[in-house]
Design a protein that fits this description.
Blueprint lengths: L12 E6 L3 E11 L2 E11 L5 E2 L2 E2 L2 H15 L5 E6 L4 E9 L4 H15 L7 E10 L6 E10 H13 L3 E7 H13 L10 E7 L4 E7 L2 E8 L3 H12 L17
Helix pairs in contact: 1-3
Bound molecules: adenosine-5'-triphosphate (ATP) and magnesium ion.
C-alpha cells in the first residue's frame, strides 16, 4: 500500500487527508540532500457528520470541501496521495520462504490473508510489501500484508475523482505518518539510530500514539479521545461558550 511517494520520478503529488473535523492538503518539495520543504497547505473545515468513524457519510459535502480546499491550495498538481484510517485496515506481518517468486508470493499472501481477514477476499483490497529478510532465518523473509474493505478505498477514490483529482497513492494513515516521521528522525543526532521516537497525534476524536525504533514501529495504540471531548469537558466544567471545533480555521501558506 505504500508507494515511494518521495521518489523523484513519481508525478508531483500532494497529500489529502480526510479526517473527522476537516480536509487537509499538503504539498512538499524536495530541496536537496533528502530534505523537504512545505510548499503549501490548507485546512478546510468539514461540517459535523460529513465523516463518521473514518467513513465518508456525506460524499457530496466532502467533495465540495475538497474542491474548495484545492482552489485555496493553488497547486498545479492533480495527483493526490491519500490514506485509509488505520482502524479500517487489517495488517499482519507474515514470514515466507525467501525463494518465492513474485507470482508464488501473491498466492501465498492470498492464502494467509484468508486466515486473518473476516471477509470474503472479493470484498477487500489486499496488498503486500516485502519488509526484508527474516531476523531469525536467512532462508525466509518478512512480508507485510494489508487488507481493507473495498468501499473504504472506493469512497476515497470517488471523493478525489468527483473533485477533479486523481488518487495516485492509497496508503494507511499510520504508515504514512511513520514514513513522514522517518524524514524527521533522519535529522536527529546519529540519524536517530537506536532511539525510541514517539508520535502522539491528538485529533478531534481519536488520539494515536506510536513508537518507532530503527525504522520499525514497535508500539501503536489508538484511544477514543480527542480535542472535541476536551472542548466539551471545558464547556461542561466552566459553562463557557466555545466555538465548535469544526469551525476553527487554521490556514496558512508557505513559499
Ligand atoms: N486553534 C485551535 N485551538 C485549540 N484547539 C484546536 C485549534 N484548532 C484545532 N483544535 C483542536 O484540534 C482538533 C482538530 O485536530 P485535527 O485536525 O488533528 O483533527 P482531525 O484530524 O480532524 O481528527 P481525527 O484524526 O480524530 O479524525 C479539534 O477538534 C480541536 O479540538
Ligand atoms: Mg487526524
Amino acid at each position: 500500500m505504500q508507494l515511494d511517494i518521495f521518489s523523484p520520478k513519481a508525478p508531483p503529488l500532494f497529500g489529502l487527508d480526510i479526517s473527522s473535523s476537516s480536509v487537509k492538503m499538503l504539498e512538499i518539495v524536495e530541496v536537496g540532500k533528502g530534505a523537504y520543504r512545505v510548499e503549501r497547505y490548507v485546512i478546510e473545515p468539514l461540517p459535523r457528520d460529513a465523516t463518521v468513524d473514518g467513513n465518508i457519510s456525506n460524499l457530496e459535502t466532502v467533495v465540495e470541501t475538497v474542491k474548495r480546499g484545492y482552489k485555496r491550495l493553488g497547486t498545479r498538481s492533480k495527483h493526490v496521495a491519500m490514506a485509509v484510517p488505520t482502524g479500517a485496515v487489517i495488517t499482519k506481518k507474515i514470514i515466507v520462504p525467501a525463494s518465492l517468486r513474485e507470482h508464488e508470493l501473491e498466492i501465498q499472501v492470498e492464502s494467509e490473508a484468508n486466515q486473518y481477514i473476516p471477509f470474503a477476499l472479493e470484498e477487500v483490497n489486499l496488498d503486500f510489501q516485502i519488509v526484508g529478510p527474516s531476523p531469525t532465518s536467512a532462508d525466509e523473509q518478512e512480508v507485510m500484508i494489508a487488507a481493507t474493505r473495498k468501499e473504504k478505498v472506493e469512497d476515497r477514490v470517488a471523493v478525489a475523482e468527483s473533485a477533479g483529482l486523481k488518487a495516485a497513492v492509497m496508503d494507511i494513515e499510520a504508515f504514512a505518518q511513520q514514513a513522514a516521521l522517518g524524514l524527521v528522525i533522519k535529522q536527529l543526532p546519529g540519524a536517530g539510530k537506536d532511539m525510541n521516537v514517539a508520535i502522539v497525534d491528538i485529533g478531534a476524536n481519536v488520539m494515536n500514539v506510536s513508537v518507532m525504533r530503527n525504522d520499525q514501529s514497535i508500539y501503536t495504540r489508538e484511544q477514543a479521545f480527542g480535542g472535541n471531548q476536551l472542548t466539551q469537558d471545558i464547556v461542561a466544567r466552566y459553562g463557557m461558550s466555545v466555538e465548535p471545533a469544526t469551525r476553527w480555521r487554521a490556514t496558512s501558506r508557505y513559499g
